[in-house]
Amino acid sequence: MSSHREAPEIAKDPVADSADLYAFVSPDKPDTVTLIANYVPLQLPSGGPNFFEFGDDVRYEIHIDNDGDGRPDVTYRFEFTTEITNPNSFLYNTGPIDALDSETWNRRQFYSLTRIADGREQRLAKKLPCPPCNVGPLSTPNYAKLARQATFALSTGEKVFAGQRADGFFVDLGAIFDLGTLRPFQQLHVAGKKLFRDEGTPVNATDRMNVHSIALQVPLGRVRRKANRYSVADPASTIGVWTSASRQQVRVLDPGPDLAAGPFVQVSRLGNPLFNEVIVPMAQKDKWNSLPPSEDKRFVGFVEKPELAGLLPALYPGVFPNLDRLNKAGKPRADLVAILLTGVPAGLIDGFTNTTGDVQADMLRLNTAIPPSRRPNRFGVLGGDLAGFPNGRRVDDDVVSIELRAIAGLTVPLVDKTFRPDEAAAALTPGLSAADVTAPLLGHFPYLGTPYDGFNNPPASS
Predict the structure, then answer these.
(1) C-alpha–C-alpha distance, residues 283 and 272, integer Å
(2) What is the mean pLDDT of residues 274-279?
(3) Contact at 8 Å (CB) between 60 and 242?
(4) Mean pLDDT over residues 249-268, rounded?
């Protein structure tokens, strides 16, 4: 997964789990950047009567670094409160919810939004309502209407939404975590070749699951540092983005509401997809979640010599001979360091750069001077589409395939023209795309699809 349950401690705390992060120049409003941070992963839509929600005791933040030091220059902070309207009912709702102030909705959630920049905190909004969870056709008969009601345009130029959405991430978890099996190549797997004669059909394990999304659309001038111009080659055009969740240091369990005290400490973060999931070893995952990106120099060794790069030739014998020789040579993977920790410098890819300088920090780097693609390619920069991952991340980018191919050696020629990637590196994929997500993505804010409802999951006709 991108970052669902990626570390031992955060796997026990889903309400604070940073699951996915997206950052892209808005295709329908290119003078803005859209930032989407997902939390509370793997929601079963029928999971009542206590349906999913944000944590009142969690501080959710989206950070923007616009000067390349791996520290936030702009932060958007979201804080939630929950209200029960009928303390004598166990039900989430007692009738159809047709508006955000419906009297039949028993458990409502609100949030405040604060912008932090230049050492100042600015409260942008308070007590904005979230939509309910998508319970079913009787309880939430017009969910799209409720989502529209919960989308707010602020006087400062931002647009904001916080609430449940369909999980747009696609990944074959059942295969990948069964000893690294990729179903399109299962017959080539060192153990799979004893079981399979042919390739298999991939399964999207996150399909028909929901998440809770914080979506923010921000004018470019509110995230970029001031500069005379913003061309592709200008450093001021590129921003770094990551998200975090924090809890207060002390928590006292109580039969009533729990008590929290002390300073907030970070328990989860996310920049590039799969970084903590696949790059950082298990013994250090919780530590990584507690640190800012500016401390990621501690983990550069795992990027320079990723464990997965060594596993691919072992799991698929004879398929990656060039990668195997590269691994045995012991040369650090400068291509992966550029992609994940510093951004790609100018001169490696025609017309493209998203470097933020020498500081090694895991952030989604977005060159905001690159316009949205008219014909998006799900393989992003690897597919010749400079508006896609690793230039930020769009909701339909095939980040699992892109990162697998990079780790398999497809991007090594960026820094070593003598290296020839294995033929399999360009074909490596779990075999899924956004077409394998049942809920269609939207062409407008907040872009992720309408959440699946509990009554029709699975469909009643099946």
Answers:
(1) 20
(2) 94
(3) no
(4) 85
CA 108 to centroid of chain Cα atoms: 26
34: closest CA among 158, 212, 150?
158
pLDDT of residue 49 exceeding 60: yes
Please indicate, yes or no, if residue 429 is contained in any of the structural domains.
Answer: yes
The Cα-based distances of 116 to 71, 126, 350 in angstroms read 13, 15, 36
Q: What percent of the chain has pLDDT over 90?
A: 94
Number of C-beta neighbours around residue 10 at 10 A: 23
Q: How far is CA 106 from CA 32, 86, 102, 382, in A?
A: 36, 6, 9, 48
Query: For the chain, what is the domain count?
Result: 1
Kindly report whether the peptide bond that precedes residue 49 is cis, defined as omega within 30 degrees of 0: yes
User: In this structure, is residue 263 part of a structural domain?
Assistant: yes
Sign of the alpha-carbon dihedral angle for 243, 249, 252, 257: negative
Please write the tens of the pLDDT for every residue from 113-141: 999 999 999 999 999 999 999 999 999 99
56 occurs within a structural domain: yes
Residue 2 has a pLDDT of 67
Measured between alpha carbons, how far is 462 from 285 in angstroms, rounded to an integer? Answer: 40
Q: How confident is the model at residue 462 (pLDDT cuts 50, 70, 90)?
A: very low
How many other β-carbons are positioned within 10 Å of the β-carbon of residue 254? Answer: 8
Position 373 confidence tier, pLDDT thresholds 50, 70, 90: very high
Tokens of 115: 């912008």
Helix axes 307-315, 321-329, angle to 10 degrees: 140
For residues 253 and 199, the answer to whether their CB atoms sit within 8 Å is no
Output the six-digit token pair for 403: 């990162």
Contact in structure between 339 and 411 (CB atoms under 8 Å): yes
Task: Indicate whether 370 belongs to any domain.
Answer: yes
User: What are the strands, taking DSSP E only, across 145-209?
Assistant: 152-153, 159-166
Q: What are phi and psi of 194, to 5 degrees?
A: -80, -15
Residue 126 CB coordination number (10 Å): 12
Neighbours of 55 (CB within 10 A): 19
- Rounded to whole angstroms, the Cα distance separating 344 from 405 reads 16
Please name which of 388, 25, 20 lies closest in space to residue 217, comparing C-alpha atoms: 25
**Angle 179-299-117 from CA coordinates, rounded to 5°:** 120
Residue 325 domain boundaries = 10-171+206-436
In angstroms, rounded to a whole number, what is the distance separating the alpha carbons of residues 320 and 305?
Answer: 16
Give the confidence band of 461 by pLDDT, cuts at 50, 70, 90: very low
153-190, pLDDT tens digit by residue? 999 999 999 999 999 999 999 999 999 999 999 999 99
